[in-house]
Amino acid sequence: MRRAAVLCLVLFLSLVASGPTRPAAAQQAGGAKIVGGPYAVNVGARTATVMWVVETGEASLGTQPGKVDKTSPVLHAESIVFPNLKAGTTYYYQAFPGDAGKGSFKTPPEGPAKFQFVVYGDTRTRHDVHRAVIAGMLKYAQPDFVMHTGDLVADGADSSQWPIFFDVERELLRKTAFFSSLGNHERNARNYFDFTDAQPHYSFNWGNAHFSVMDSNIEDVAPTRAEQEVFWQEQLRWLESDLRDAQNADFRFVIAHHPPETAVKRRQGENPRMTELEPMFEKYHLSAGFFGHDHNYQHYLKNGVHYFTTGGGGAPLYDVDAPPKDITVKVASTENFVVVNVDGKSARVEARKPDGELLDSTALGR
Ligand SMILES: [Fe+2]
Fold this sequence. Notes:
By secondary structure, the chain is of the alpha/beta class. It has 2 domains: about 1-85, no CATH class; about 110-365, Metallo-dependent phosphatases (Purple Acid Phosphatase, chain A, domain 2), CATH 3.60.21.10. The protein contains 7 helices and 18 strands. Strands 3-2-1-8-7-6-16-17-18 form a 9-stranded mixed beta sheet. Strand 2 (about 50-60) and strand 3 form a beta hairpin. Helix 2 (about 125-140) runs parallel beside helix 3. The N and C termini lie far apart (about 40 Å). Bound molecules: fe (ii) ion. The site of fe (ii) ion has 6 residues, from loops. Fe (ii) ion binds near residues 183, 184, 185, 257 and 293.
């Protein structure tokens, strides 16, 4: 019965995807236009959500009657959940009419298999650089999914910035699955949750690998330090049990915005909560952690755990002027993205500049 339902879904999706081109999405009834997507989120072996962002109008603001200082688009996200999917399968969807509404994603395989994912972050502010980083990914990688380490935009609460993010990311996002963690620049804004359908912290499996995604931006989760501490302690309890339950996976990865280690001198010691997690990462045999926040590339190996900072997605670059002694593998003040190829019990992490130049290459595993 389940197999029949899956076949029907595949047939429906392929029929829709190959059907005649309809009027462009920008000409939707009521003047609404699509300014983001389509893209796939929460992709699992059995379900996936396809989303797109619609601008239904705009609103203006000024300091005098009739004076317009700022105009912002009114946005909302549309989404459709596809259940009863099959693991390790590529699906082609039509989210809205026209070629612009077409996309695809792959569901995770069950058990050991080959797959690839890309990690990147801090795509805010310099849109031309962000565009170059995405072009590099499209040229030098074919990810089954991408993982954004946060700071997607400069101000998550400013609706005018999200259409720019989605415009730059369009060709990447329509052919892969998107996962993300919260950066400080998201400001914990509702826009982030509306457009990603993500929880503040969550985990998922892809083949033989387990991914734990944290919210390290606790200063925005609540107004008081006491409430922030409650959030952090709850997250730590979740993280520890999540890592403990994933000991049978061949690889365990943690993703968060703020890095536990940094080569940026003026930022050293800024993230003590993350640094204090290192013993937990060691105890539960973390394969690697991926972080952002510092706009450069950094790679450390400490007590068997690899720590990567890949915050080179477009935000202004930071120096790497004080690499920590004894643990530094590679640091570089450059734009970058990280490609991870997993093949059964082996995995390789390759960091690249947008032009494809290899910055760093490391085998993971014990
Ligand atoms: Fe940041």
